[in-house]
Design goal:
Elements: E1 17-19, E2 25-28, E3 32-36, E4 41-43, E5 45-48, E6 55-62, E7 79-81, E8 91-93, E9 102-110, E10 116-118, E11 123-128, E12 131-135, E13 142-146, E14 156-160, E15 163-168, E16 184-189, E17 200-201, E18 209-212, E19 216-220, E20 225-232, E21 237-244, E22 263-266, E23 273-277, E24 286-294, E25 297-298, E26 306-311, H1 314-330
Parallel strand pairs: 3-11, 19-26
Antiparallel strand pairs: 1-2, 2-5, 4-8, 6-9, 7-8, 9-10, 9-11, 12-13, 14-15, 14-16, 16-17, 18-20, 20-23, 21-24, 22-23, 24-25, 24-26
Domain Ig-like: 121-203, 208-311
Signal peptide: 1-20
Pfam families: V-set (PF07686)
């Protein structure tokens, strides 16, 4: 099955914990984890049980219930048990949502009387998004990339008007901030650029900015897909177009021979601006970005866009679509 998995963002309080008695134990590699919304995290652990016992069942549960989360509809297509019935009890949670913030425990059952054991204290997972906080006066604005839990060993990336600005281990942007009303800023974490914060205006509310409707889309070969965004141009827009991020220079898709007769743009800055691609091919799988120009401005090309995956596997397609729709309903 196709993966959209991302590596873990950060791990906190990285201390192994082993509790147990009479041959029982569960070792959690990490007690506390802070991870980005939309990323993937592994809750790593191992276990031991007395000789003569045979493990019949293993599962994880949360502090707000004792049910196996693998059977919980809210986790459908969202969790993967990567362990076994011998010693590994690693759980992977994909496409993290803020509601996944909880304490997770592992439990094993064996074929002997009294053969059940739950590992304490479990793993506390905190899920956070990114936001740019603007403080200071009119001429001395301070930008901080904030989270609801502490990310460690992290490099922050800053964007101004969609263009890469700087990278730093500090969540605070170090250089003077433009006081222009048309400028917007956004931040991301290195390695997870597609999970960037919303772009915010430093002065007023009418700055240049682009917001993509979806971060990723899966579509069937031969079908039609709509990729949308909304944008605000401080000055009157002179041109708009979509392009593939894997091109050395941005190229309007309507002029790309590989998309001839298959691409159409619809919409204005008063609503979603949509790229429609028909008769999809597997080679259309790529990240698509949007840019616009005014008489004296062009939206930057380094701001992450929407990733499209085209597949001919119907089982894979419906699995991913169901998963994405479920996430949208729950969030």
């Amino acid at each position: 099955m196709l993966n959209f998995h991302l590596i873990n963002v950060v791990l906190c309080d990285c201390v192994s914990v082993v509790l147990g008695q009479n041959g029982w134990s569960v070792t959690y590699t990490t007690q506390s984890i802070c991870a980005l919304k939309g990323s993937t995290v592994d809750l790593s652990c191992s276990f031991r049980y007395p000789r003569g016992h045979k493990v019949t069942s293993t599962f994880w549960f949360t502090e707000w219930g004792t049910e196996d989360i693998g059977l919980d509809p809210e986790y459908a297509g969202h969790v993967e048990y990567h362990g076994d019935k011998e010693k590994d009890c690693t759980l992977r949670i994909t496409d993290l949502r803020e509601r996944d913030s909880s304490t997770y425990w592992f439990r094993l059952l064996t074929d002997q009387e009294g053969g059940t054991y739950t590992g304490s204290p479990g793993v506390t997972l905190s899920v956070t998004g990114l936001q740019v906080k603007v403080t200071g006066g009119h001429q001395d604005k301070i930008l901080t990339c904030i989270t609801t839990c502490t990310l460690t060993l992290t490099t922050y990336i800053w964007y101004k008007n969609g263009q890469h600005l700087d990278e730093s281990t500090s969540p605070q942007y170090k250089d003077p901030v433009s006081s222009n009303y048309e400028d917007s800023y956004s931040c991301a974490v290195k390695g997870h650029e597609e999970l960037h914060s919303p772009a915010v205006c430093v002065q007023g509310q009418s700055c240049n900015r682009v917001t993509y409707t979806k971060r990723r889309i899966c579509a069937l070969k031969g079908s039609t897909v709509d990729i949308s965004c909304t944008y605000v141009g401080y000055y009157s827009t002179t041109s708009t177009f979509w392009f593939r991020s894997d091109k050395s220079t941005p190229e309007d898709l309507t002029r790309d021979p590989g998309y001839a007769g298959r691409v159409k743009y619809t919409g204005t800055n008063k609503g979603p601006f949509t790229l429609r691609i028909t008769d999809l091919r597997e080679e259309d799988s790529a990240e698509y970005r949007f840019t616009f120009k005014t008489y004296n401005f062009e939206w930057g090309h380094s701001f992450p866009g929407t990733t499209l995956t085209v597949t001919g596997n119907t089982t894979l397609y419906f699995t991913i679509v169901y998963h994405n729709e479920l996430q949208e309903k729950i969030n």
